[in-house]
DNA sequence: AAATAAAATGAACGCTGTTCATTTTATTAT
DNA sequence: ATAATAAAATGAACAGCGTTCATTTTATTT
């Protein structure tokens, strides 16, 4: 029996190794410039081996997108030490943007690329658990805000969606290089300045 | 001289034909599933001919992104008949979302994909004129709002950027199928409901 | 040491974007 | 009208892509 257990662990280890190699290359040279052959070469295995452990490229991308969410969730969980929900909400948006900028390829994979969603369609569990969990943390924080008397006249879910969109939009414009190509007066601080407008706005709700 | 003129017109016509074929296929089956061979076949020309009229695929994608902006600008210009800037701003966001949903592939090309921006880097004029013009219309409207006494304590550019991000974020989440995969209570109306929260918010600024 | 099972392999397939020598078509000069 | 020239269109060929699968290598069991 111990052999079977060990085999299972070895399989998991190699799967993790492939993902690790893939992520390294993604960060280094971008997702679209990373090939299965690159990944195989990176970890000194053949192309065929990758396909023993993953159904296809979408499978790899989906697993990597899940890893990204684990990281983002840990960013969020840290902020849950903050008692005041409004203060927490403000910090969450900032952490979200920080994550997106520092992990732009992963962010794109998690929130923009089709691959992870297409993988869901082919799989048994069609729910986007990763997205639900992360968004749940935002929703919960906003719910706490409303329970505390903030944001009167607003509805939890639509407001949470609006906040998510606002921050997500900033991240997208930034990582897709649309900010620096629109001639802002202060292109270097517009992201910060824009987020500041959002903070001011929150106070007026 | 008339020959040269005619030749020039023919060249323009064929270029336009290629773009028309490309756009048709993009809408039909998505950008990433459209190949140069597809485009050539669609208009009954050879692959080589496409490369006589366009430097590479990015060149085609950039021209198509420009065409998309012409359409979006016309959406916006229509709304400039509305006198009250705040009313206009509200309608602009709605028109923007409508455009994104009805032309999701084009929208992705215009605001998310790397191709048009990469083409800019290789060209003489590195400015993103299309983006500047469209965003200029938003900026101008918000400026009018501030001049009229709305949005006190806010700054034009950062606020315009925030508004753009908010609406852009909603569009991205929708067209990248992140909305319908997060279990909203009312997934069918969340986009509308979320935009409504934004409208309520505008009133409080 | 032989038989069996599991894991890793890499050549091959049909795609992709791109190039460029060759052919076809159109224009100009005689 | 015919020959010479210029312009335009072509498609085979190249390297690289994701993916498959018969074959080989390695590990386990008998």
Question: Explain this structure to me?
Answer:
The structure is a homodimer of 205-residue chains. With 205 residues, the first copy, chain A, is mostly helical. Chain A folds into two domains: 1-54, Orthogonal Bundle (Arc Repressor Mutant, subunit A), CATH 1.10.10.60; 56-204, Tetracycline Repressor, domain 2, CATH 1.10.357.10. Chain A is built from ten helices and no strands. Chain A has helices spanning 2-29, 36-42, 47-53, 57-79, 85-102, 104-111, 115-122, 129-147, 156-175, 190-204. In chain A, helix 8 packs across helix 9 (156-175). At the A-B interface, helix 8, helix 9 and helix 10 of A face helix 8, helix 9 and helix 10 of B. Chain A binds a DNA duplex (30 and 30 nucleotides) through helix 3. Chains A, B: Keywords: DNA-binding, Transcription, Transcription regulation.
Return the average pLDDT of chain A rounded to an integer: 96
Helical percent range of chain A?
over 70%
Low-confidence stretches of chain A: none
Q: What is the domain tally of chain A?
A: 2
What about the largest sheet of chain A?
none
Shape of chain A: globular
Number of helices of chain A: 10
The level-1 CATH class of the largest domain in chain A:
Mainly Alpha
Structural class of chain A: mainly alpha
Oligomer: homodimer
Radius of gyration of chain A: 20 Å
Order of helices and strands of chain A: HHHHHHHHHH
CATH level-two architecture of the largest domain in chain A: Orthogonal Bundle
Chain pair with largest interface: A-B, 49 and 49 residues
Number of strands of chain A: 0
The CATH topology of the largest domain in chain A is Tetracycline Repressor, domain 2
* Through-space gap between termini of chain A: 62 Å
* CATH-level-4 superfamily name of the largest domain in chain A: Tetracycline Repressor, domain 2
Protein name (chains A, B): HTH tetR-type domain-containing protein
Pfam family, one (chains A, B): TetR_C_33
InterPro entries (chains A, B): Homeodomain-like_sf (IPR009057), HTH-type_Tx_Regulator (IPR050624), HTH_TetR (IPR001647), MT1864/Rv1816-like_C (IPR025996), Tet_transcr_reg_TetR-rel_C_sf (IPR036271)
Domain HTH tetR-type (chains A, B): 12-72
